[in-house]
Amino acid sequence: MDLNLIAFWSLSTIAVLSALGVVFFRNIIYAVLSLISTLIAISGLFFNLGAELIGALQILIYAVAIVVFYVLVISTVPKYEGEAIDLKYSLLSTPFAFILFMELAYVSVYGLWVSGTGVFGPAMLNQVSNVKAVATMLFTKYLFPFEVASVILLVAMIGAIVLGKKDIVED
Amino acid sequence: MGILLSIVADLGVPNFYVLIPEIIVLTVALTILVLELFTKNKSLLSALSIFGLGLAAISVFFIQEGDKTLYGLYIVDTFSLWFKFLILITSITIFAVFNPYIDSKRSYYGEHYYLMLFSILGMMIMVSSPNLITMYMGLELMSISLYILVGLLKRDYKSKEGAFKYLIIGGAGTAIISYGIALIYGKTGTFDLIGIALKLQDNIDVGGIGGLVLLIVGLALKASAVPFHFWTPDAYEAAPTPITALMGGVAKLATYATIVRVTVDAFGGSSEVWAPAWAVLAAASMVVGNFIALRQKDVKRMLTYSSIAHTGYILAALASGNGVGFFAILFYAMVYVFMAIAGFLFLSAFERNEGWTNSVEDFKGLAKRHPIMALYMLILMFSMLGIPPTAGFMGKFGIFLSLISADVWWLTIVLVITSVISAGYYLRIVANMYMYEPISKAKFNLTQIEKAVIGFLSILTLLLGVYPAIFWEISNLLTNSLLMTAVAR
Fold first, then answer.
1. How many helices (H) and strands (E) does chain A have?
2. pLDDT tens digits for range A64-76
3. Which of A148, A157, A168, A171 to mutate to test binding with chain B, by most B CBs within 10 Å of its CB?
4. Does the domain made of A1-82 have the CATH classification 3.90.1150.10?
5. So what's the ipTM on this one?
6. Closest to B144 (Cα-Cα) out of B180, B177, B178, B168
7. Which among A114, B45, B50, B153 is least surrounded, fewest beta carbons within 10 Å?
8. Domain ranges across chain A
9. In chain B, positions 177-236, which contact chain A (CB-CB < 8 Å)?
């Protein structure tokens, strides 16, 4: 059996099982740990596909930054005693999840995507790495959105501070 | 490395001269960000903001149009320059009456000024985006600044609640838009509006439709069309009233301009998909907005629902899918921004006085106590209702003509019937002002600037109805420039 295939199946199994764990664990700490496991498995899938940049970003942003954020939130709220399965929300969310899945599946099967075209085709990517290809586009053609993103982050940071701090009432 | 150099070699340096209005607004915003740490002088901060906006508005006239800069991610055409100018001018009116309001609410935040400037910067980026990525970034900058601004009212729990609702639902909206953009990128391999149009031509398939529908849903949520309007009443009512004017007037104008540009430039060939979608959203907005507005006792909330109804009127023009429709939507959006801002600023001015609760009852006998202000409100209400000779009539007339020209009769009937229903709540305010005796004789305390700004906006609404030629010309010019880009593909 091809080694790539073995890696794909084992990583997907881990990802799906951990994702089930995120939904069904009663203890919220276990759920967050399962989430980390899912995210790392997905990052492994990206590496397996040869997208090493997205794989690394997945680990850096999701498995580290966002999960740390979750852990911080959990540590500030008191112990959460919830139902493992809330019937009302399950019934409500199942059709939506199903519709979303069907839409993705249908569009992916019949959408006939454009891929592997453009300047950075497979031949080009064999010569330069993913990182260089992304950086070339990001710092030339997409420079402006990149700069606007920095303003957005500034605004978001200001907002978090202003809304989070205690009101100083003027007299 | 040689290959990469050959790719970037012919890119050149972007032309920053055409970005001068944006650079001015950004510089002023960052200056206030620093200055606000050292001074609590409200007049200085607000004067600086108005100065910056005015300078940026003047600089718009000195810009060479017809240029695409920043590697095709930023367009400077008649359309974007005119909307930039309109956004800057209308924002100045809001800044002018902002200080008295926060004084009376005793809710000073230095952050107000530069967050408003940042959101205006976002709107300017939105209207001048020939590319979905730039559009998305501008939209995010505008929305995130507005989420925060809604929550900036001291000692008011509702303001925080409204901000939170707006954040959650607005965040879902931007997520939907980015999902739609991803599907369109997957289908066409480009973010460029003209590139998308070239790739899709007239035969859009399931991948393109999926992306287009998600994009429409997200943009409709930002424009608060029914059934994606649930954040609107809470956020609009909870926000400080001048901020509501910013959201309900200026931000809406930018959103409509973006909607028109994206649908016409990128999906011009597939109007059979988006015209019915916008028609359904418009019909729902008109019906729901007008019927709920009829039951409101609070005038601020009533104007909010009226704003949802106006989203319906304005988007209805897109159902026609032809040049007349684009013309009508641009004209109505441009005159609506004056009416909406004047309406909310009217409330913001009166809210400062003791005993004013924004209720319909408060309007009783206003004509005797404040004849001039009552007259302005009369003009605004007639204009929103669409009675000649106000600008609102000319706007609705344009929409009506465009719908008839495209034979969308059912929507025309909905438009007429809901307009008649809307008389129920607009005229109630007029009747309360003119047909009742005032409960107390006390004069309201309004500043000269407030009177001047509201008067200017109301008289402009009247003048544009009596003599709409200038705005007709401008809408015509913008429609042509829009269609030229779409046809030039």
1. 8, 0
2. 888 888 888 888 8
3. A148
4. no
5. 0.90
6. B168
7. A114
8. 1-82, 116-166
9. 183, 186-189, 199, 205-207, 210
